[in-house]
Amino acid sequence: MNKGDEGGEDKEVVSLQTLSKKMDDFAKARNWEKYHSPRNLLLAMVGEVGELSEIFQWKGEVARGCPDWKEEEKVHLGEELSDVLLYLVRLSDACGVDLGKAALRKIELNAIKYPVPKKTDDHCVGDGEDSSSKINLNEEN
Hints:
Radius of gyration: 19 Å
Strand order of the largest sheet: 1-2
Largest sheet: 2 strands, antiparallel
Keywords: Cytoplasm, Hydrolase, Magnesium, Metal-binding
Mean pLDDT: 86
Distance between the termini: 17 Å
Subunit structure: Homotetramer.
Helix content: 40-55%
Shape: globular
GO cellular component, one term: cytosol
Number of strands: 2
EC number: 3.6.1.12
């Protein structure tokens, strides 16, 4: 894991590979691998998405950053988001999909499908014809 300096404080950068390894070790230590079929992992993830949805169910529109939320609500939100992420990482492993590479490819495909509008006030979905909108996500930053 890497440490990065962001905004004056150290924040741990966690990779998908780190999460994958930790989840694999966790399941092996408990002899749970036999239960971690793609179907079971998907259904478990859907259940967690339901729990995440319940958090927002009666809140109406929520401002970015959840500024009006109590600290314990944000902690609960983080836990449910984590559950969804961890099941997604585990599911991608069970299916033999490199989730990081698949996500980068999907962003590239979306950039082609939804090019940057030619006018700043044009918010319509593009037709995918503008090749200048393609972004290369394989380069290191």
